[in-house]
Amino acid sequence: xxxxxxxxxxxxxxxxxxxxxxxxxxxxxxxxxxxxxxxxxxxxxxxxxxxxxxxxxxxxxxxxxxxxxxxxxxxxxxxxxxxxxxxxxxxxxxxxxxxxxxxxxxxxxxxxxxxxxxxxxxxxxxxxxxxxxxxxxxxxxxxxxxxxxxxxxxxxxxxxxxxxxxxxxxxxxxxxxxxxxxxxxxxxxxxxxxxxxxxxxxxxxxxxxxxxxxxx
Length: 216
What we know:
The chain is an alpha+beta fold. It has helices at about 25-35, 35-45, 60-70, 70-80, 90-105, 140-145, 150-160, 170-175, 185-190, 200-215; strands at about 5-20, 120-135. Strands 1-2 form a two-stranded antiparallel sheet. The longest helix has 18 residues, at about 90-105. The two termini are about 25 Å apart.
């Protein structure tokens, strides 16, 4: 019998790195050297923050370029980046640096134009909470998913993909305990795109996948 799925929740503490950029050139210099956790934070960390409206961009870099530098072309280039398409965060960092450097080469004045509010590089620290809730079957998973907190969705479906050795979401990892019995469901979960959209939207899509699997 498979081990029960232990539902966890999480919250995030945002920590300063001490790095601030007033110009695009400073921003690029910090991008090259900032700890990799900061790249992760500025692409994923906002998911756990309370949001009262739909953000224009999914990552903090694109938002700052748009609001601070008013460079729509660059902000759109950064805004369409999907971190899940890159093998690791260093590859994502390299792509961002390449995009910014290409823009600096096109618009030399962006090297020295200063913004009113500098970009502050931060990093996040995940605090994991035990909910003491256990899921024993796929049917129970389908029933529980709509009621899981967005923190649980983030921890189990997004943050889990960074954890060695499997680097897959916790739902698929748990399904492996059943052998090939639920391989179809595992494949469908693997196809769910986690980046664009809110955590509530992601929860709804995961729920739909599992419930559709159970009904058919």
